[in-house]
Queue: 3 jobs
Job 1
Amino acid sequence: MHTKTVIDRMKTKMGKMRILWFLIIGITSTSAFGQLSIEDCQQRAKKNYPLIKQHELISISESYSLSNASSGWLPRITLSAKATYQSDVTGIPIKTSFVNIEEMNKDQYQAILEVSQVIYDGGEISKQKKSTRATSEVDQKQLEVDLYAINDRVNNLYFGILLLKEQMKQNKLLQEELQRNYDRVSSYIQSGIANQSDLDAVKVNQLNTAQRQTELKSVCDAYLSMLSVFVGEKMEEDDLQKPQIKEGLLSINRPELSLIDARINQLKVQEEMIGARNLPKIGAFVQGGYGNPGLNMLKNEFVPYYVAGMRFSWSFNGLYTRKNEHNLARTGRLRLENQKEIFLFNTGLQLTLQSNEQKKLQSLIVDDDEIIRLRENIRTSSEVKVQNGTLSVTDLLRDLTLEDQARQSRLLHEIQLLKTVYDIKYTTNN
């Protein structure tokens, strides 16, 4: 009995530990996955953007067009009917007492049902299906280009929020420092080192700093609202994860290049269709008819009949424009290849400027760290001088403002560096 009780107690403890373990995992998972990276925002923005629905619509349109093209191999059924009255008919000028050939009716009637089947079309149906796929590919690549532009808009909002967030943090630190100075100056007044105007000067700086915080908060909320619309969910300041600097490849892999290649391929397929249209066509047909007269013109009554055979057709009209059509397609390809060269050239220039900007910002951040260190020393020294009565509170506030400006400059350069790195990623698509 005692052993059973011990076992039950152990099971109870294990159950409680298991629940505690699940809670720990849940809390850890929430903290680990609570923030969104810039890549997460880009993906969610693309999925939430209404243009994404075009992907499915393009695929549906392609399937319909391919189905229509494939139907070219199905038998064609045609039903026609006519009734005519003619001023004269064919007659046989033989009249004897032994032979009586009736004159044909001037009103004639005919109904024909024809079934035809393509046997050889010169590859036109195949090229038409290939052209449909090429056109669909161009549409998909154009859609990718349009969606890719969303990344740049998300980047601007994302890094704008990060910069404002860091500026608000620094502003709060400045407010805390100003509050400490306010308390010091208050004590200095009691000691006779400072006067009320010095305390008022600190208070003015406090109010200005509080106003600045309100402005930063308002702009940050506006940016968050716009990013929330893009992403499709409510975003807060702490939801965004500050990215790390990762050096990427400098090879250009933009979707615009794939779009140009798809258009070049589309023109190649159009050239193939030019040749297919100018080849001969062969088909088989069967006609079933009912009319008066039938195939026997001399039989003046309604009769059924049929005709079966082969058709051969070759239109030479396209040969007149074939050379010009090929030249137009070839010229179009050359223009597209030139556009590709221009895009690579301009993108290369932009990449060079961004790489130089990255190096400049990295150098500025090194200087910023040294400036902050020196400004902090100057401000600390000024606080001691104010305490000793050898420096005015106004001079201390000036040094405090200069230190804050140095820290703000460091924050600005850091966020600018991160954004430049992602601008390079956007320019190269790597």
Note: The CA atoms of residues 185 and 199 lie 6 Å apart.
Job 2
Amino acid sequence: MTKDGLLKSIAETGYNVGYGAKKNFATHDIVQKAPGGLGLVSLLVGLYALVWEPLNAKWIAATMVGFGIITLIITHYDHNKDAYASEGERLTALFYRLRDLYRDVQATAEGDDLSAYRISLDAIQNEFWRSNQSKQILFSDWYAHYKFFWQQQIGWLDEQLNFSFWRDRMPLSLTLVLALSAIGAIAVGAYHLA
């Protein structure tokens, strides 16, 4: 394998490992924080409904019941909460090992023997594939995208993978939801104007 090929392979593995770490952290964060946030919103809406009549609407009550159902669904992940955090930490350590390996390979001269670096990459990949947290919570992809692309230092990956905004940094499902929402808003607006 050439030096350029090895650098690209390390970057691709780094993306998979780093994104996997952020996905585990995203699931952990959602399971940790969402029930409390939904409960607080429901409590405040219920409290203010006692003094402000418009909050007594049936659709608002139904929304609060929906929040309760969402909270019950999220609690199914609660027993594994610590495992998601541990897996995220394990994968983050691998991510930093890959970053250091990438920089070590960058520092080699053309024609140097890269077999030791290839063995290191294979070992890290094998360690990565032992991941056991495959069941992730809904919307963890969107949150992981934010955590990976906007919070993580990924310049070394971008050198090889050339991330683009719409192709990589925005989740496809979020892009589709936003596009369909915009189309729906335009259709409703056009209907009311007609």
Note: Residues 3-49 form the longest helix (47 residues).
Job 3
Amino acid sequence: MTGAVDRHAGTIGVVAFVLIWELAARLVWRDPGVLPAPTQALAEAWTVLTWDVLLGHVGISLFRILAGFSIAAVLGMALGLACGWFRGLSLALRPLVELLRPIPPLAWIPIAIVWFGLGEPSKIFVIALGAFFPIFTNAYRGITMVSPVLFRAARTMDVDGLRLLWRVAVPAAMPDMATGLRVGFGLSFGILVAAELIAAERGMGHLIMEARQLGHLGVSIFGILLIGVVSMLADHQLGAAIRRTVGRWARV
């Protein structure tokens, strides 16, 4: 019985939240212009949106997220591993990373427009920048936290230099790197709305802003929930891919 409850605890929590929201919106606020109930938001979205329009918004947003995240993953892991392995590079780059890391991605939007214009590159840049730092940090942490015992054992078998890095250090750092990828991927969705403020004509973030401007608050709420659902499904797929690659010993 306890196992069944544990398996469905998340579902129970979501259902309870939606029910409380529905009752509060209908019995307490009673004003869809302030807080529409979930059923009212879905009904308004069903009236205003078509499947083609909805799929277009989701598709372009996923393209931007995957493009930005892919760039961040490659650069973050490569630089994180390099800084963790080469002390001189770490001394040169980590202060710069620590200086830039606290800056919100939203603050880079004006510079992104100047550098890349109003097209897709500026949006992808902002997403990549936001996802880069947790990926870099976890890759660096993973490579620097590898047990010295593993290195000594490998050297007794004549494994040294870059072979030591690729055969021992990188596999041992994989759990931390996988965590960084999951966090960075989640941040990509969080940055999406800010990125799509850059003169976007399509996308889930644009859908939210446009609906608000047109007075369709229910559609805006639907767009917010849509981002959450798409993010959850995409994160599940990423987690499954990481588990297949890293192995069951990397609990991500």
Note: DSSP finds ten helices and no strands in the chain.
